[in-house]
Structure formats: C-alpha cells, structure tokens
Design goal:
8-stranded mixed β-sheet, 14 helices, Aminopeptidase, 458 residues, 17% strand, 16 strands
Length: 458
C-alpha cells in the first residue's frame, strides 16, 4: 500500500493540504501528485513542546507504557485539556449502566459547542475502544486529542478550521472492569440494531445528531499463526451499504490508514483474513453483520472502518519487552487515526457530498423500489439461501400498534421515520435510512427486531 503522507513515531502527525477528489477510485499516487505536504518531525515536536498543554501527559506516557490510563485519570485529563485550549469542548452524550459519563470530545478552530457548530459541516469521529479490555485505542485518542489541540502547525490548524474532530469514549464501565462488555456483560459492538445498551444508544445518538462523514472504530485483536500483523484494518462489508460509500471506505483502508501504519515501520493487513506466504487462504472474521459498528456506520452513509491493533507481541523485540508491545499497540491506533485525518483533509468536500448523495440515492431507491435488498452475505460473499435477498424490494413496512409501541424509541434513535395509521404505523422505504429498515423490521433479517409486514404497493 502507498499513501500520500507519512508519519514516523507515535508523536508525529502528517499534515496534508486539502485536495478534493472527484473520482472515488483515484489512486494514492495520483493523490500524492496533486497534493502532498509532509510535516517536518522536528518542527512538529517543537510546536508540541511550546504548546501550553505540553506538560499534560497521560499516565501511560508518563510510565513509558507500563500503566494504562484509568477512567478517573482520563476524565481529569479531558477536563484539563478542555480548560487549557479554546479548541476543545467536552460533551456528556450519555450515561453508562453504572452511571459514568460517556464523553464526546470535539476539537476545532474554534471548538464546536453543538452539532450546529461543526466546522463547515465536516466531522470525523473516532470511537476510542468500545471494548473495555482493549485499552490502546483510548490511549491513542487521548494523545492525539492533546496533540491536535495544542499544535501550532499551519497544516493542522487549517484542517481544524475546516473539519471538526471528535473522540468518543463509549464503554467506561467495561474500561473500569477490564472486560470486553459493559456492566451487564453485553458486547456493545453487537448492539447497533436493537440499541438496548445505554452505551450504544449514546453512540447512535452522536451519529444521528452530529452526522459524521468519517468514522474510525478502534479495537485490538489477539495475534496468532497466519494472523499476526501489528495492525488489521477493514471497511464495512454489509451488502446494503451504498456503493460509493463502500468504495471510499475501502480506499481509506488501503490508501490512508493501512499505508500510514506501514509508513511507521509496522505491518498491516486486512481484518479477518489468514495469510500464508503473502496469500490469503481463509476468512475467519469481518462479516457484514449490521449490528456491528463498522457495518452500521456504512449503512448510515458514513465512510468508515475498523482498526485492530495486535494486543500481543508480533516481533522478537516485543517478545522480550512487554512495554515495547504496549507502546506499539498505541502507535498503531495513533497512526491509523492520522491516516483517517489525512483522508478527510484531502477529500473533505467529496466525503461530505457523497454522504448526502448516498442518503438521497437511498431515498430514491426506496421510492422506485429499485435495487436489491440483502438479508445475508457480504461484499465478497453473495447470499446462499433464497431468503438471503429480495430482488423485488418492498415499498415499506406496516407495523402493528404493539410493534410501534415496542420500537418507537429505537426507530427514533435510528433516525427512521414513520406515519401512524389505523393499523399501527407505516414505515416507508423512501427515506435515507432505507438500507437499515429491512434489517430492522423484516423477519428474514437475522438480527431484526420484529416481523413487520412488507408491502409491495404503497
């Protein structure tokens, strides 16, 4: 993979100039020819040293990777960062099952106080470790938030005038308990259909109200034989994702985030693929489930991806130094995040335009009952059962009164509109949420919420 920008070391940020891409298949080499602006590492380090908040370090940084930052320490860090920089605003967007605040930090020039204040309508969101026992994403987010809020580099100042950068810390209870799930043991990353957990509800609300153009979902994985790169990345695979959003997401993975990780001397691969002698031979993960955030974001017309840092050693040096492993885990998340920032910096106008256009395309397809609705499969696997796809899409769904009462709050969070009628409520497919509606309401959907009645004539 190749990228138009490069980063060396976890404290460095590449600073590309803005360049709008008109072709979603534009190569990274062409992009580099159009616009490249690498930031000198010494100049950037000096800018961070001179910044007012340079003394603000995470416990992880202060311990050289020996101690992960706790929830309480992170809360104090975020509050100190907000107090020290006019670029930073801290929002409590929800409350966890055990009553802890779910924080969204937004950074811009100036700091946006609400969704209406987003810089020129452009927003990139980092989900900082939805699984409580995967700490490196949180650490990468804390460091990057600090660095972006204090840098004086002109390229990044320009980005912050044009784009708002958000960091959300979704699962504080799992963070405290060092568990994958939340306080109830629920895997929040399997709850973006039903939205039963307060954590998934908070993130879904941010996606609905703040309307991100780009999302990077930060995770960790356990390396093993044939599956042992420093990082793994993947785009949304659900077959209902808009084709252009899918291409842009795949491009971000291949030309930006994966390339940025490799530019730092680390290895990167595609999540879910076992590799031998450089050739993939089996897919073991990375499917198209709509209830997973990576796919859910695509269905919401967000250019997005998953990033997975290897939680264990992947080199001989790391085998002998656990702290080196920990620091590399965070370096992966920082580098991938920088890659996403490069993507939106160079393609800001196109990303925003295509997110809006995808919503319009979905509405038009719903109105004309065109295309195919998929209940199974993924981008590299077609459905294998007759129930896996509907080639003659419905125009909408009829909900009973009981179903509406059960689902009304969830549909509102999902940004799905309905019209009440004598039989309950009618949900039209002619709306931006068209890719998600059948997956929520059809009995053929594995993770559907109810068996509503599909209608062929509305």
């Amino acid at each position: 993979m190749a990228c138009a920008v490069a980063m060396v070391g976890t404290a460095l940020v590449a600073g590309p100039t803005a360049a709008t891409a008109d072709d979603p298949d534009r190569t990274a080499a062409h992009q580099a020819a159009v616009s490249t602006a690498a930031v000198d590492s010494q100049a950037l380090e000096q800018s961070l040293t001179e910044a007012p908040s340079k003394g603000l370090q995470t416990p992880f940084e202060a311990s050289n990777g020996a101690n992960w930052t706790t929830v309480e320490q992170a809360q104090a860090f975020l509050e100190d960062l907000e107090a020290s920089s006019e670029r930073v605003a801290l929002h409590e967007v929800g409350t966890s099952g055990e009553g802890r605040p779910i924080n969204l930090m937004t950074i811009g020039s100036p700091a946006p106080k609400s969704p209406e204040d987003i810089a020129e309508g452009s927003f990139i969101l980092f989900n900082c470790s939805i699984h409580g026992n995967e700490p490196s994403g949180r650490e990468g987010c804390l460091q990057l938030a600090r660095d972006m809020s204090t840098t004086s580099d002109p390229a990044w100042n320009r980005l912050l005038r044009q784009t708002t950068v958000g960091f959300i810390y979704t699962n504080p209870d799992g963070w405290v308990a060092d568990t994958r799930g939340n306080a109830d043991g629920t895997d929040v990353n399997r709850d973006f259909m039903a939205l039963e957990t307060p954590e998934a509800q908070a993130l879904a609300t941010v996606i609905r109200d703040w309307n991100p153009d780009v999302l990077n979902d930060l995770h960790e994985y356990g390396p093993r034989e044939y599956y042992d790169t420093a990082a793994l990345v993947l785009w949304p695979r659900n077959r209902n994702v808009d084709e252009t959003i899918h291409r842009l997401s795949e491009r971000m993975v291949n030309d930006y985030t994966g390339a940025q990780i490799e530019a730092n001397g680390m290895t990167s691969g595609i999540y879910g693929l076992l590799i031998k002698d450089g050739v993939p031979f089996q897919q073991v993960a990375g499917d198209g489930q709509a209830r997973i955030l990576r796919n859910y974001a695509g269905l919401k017309h967000v250019t997005g991806q998953l990033t997975e840092a290897a939680s264990g050693p992947v080199t001989a040096e790391e085998e002998n130094d656990p702290l080196l492993t920990n620091r590399r885990r965070v370096s992966v998340q920082y580098a991938s995040s920088v890659g996403s920032l490069a993507m939106i910096s160079e393609n800001r106008t196109r990303l925003a335009r295509q997110s809006e256009a995808a919503a319009q395309r979905a509405t038009e397809a719903g109105a004309s009952q065109s295309g195919v609705v998929y209940f199974e499969g993924q981008d590299n696997m077609v459905p294998t059962t007759p129930e896996g796809a509907e080639p003659d899409p419905m125009c909408g769904y009829q909900l009973t009164g009981a179903q509406l009462e059960e689902l009304a709050s969830t549909l509102e969070l999902q940004d799905v509109a309905w019209e009440e009628n004598a039989d309950g409520a009618f949900v039209s497919m002619a709306q931006p949420s068209r890719p998600l509606i059948p997956l929520l309401l059809d009995e053929r959907s594995e993770f559907g919420l109810v068996a509503a009645t599909p209608l062929d004539d509305c």
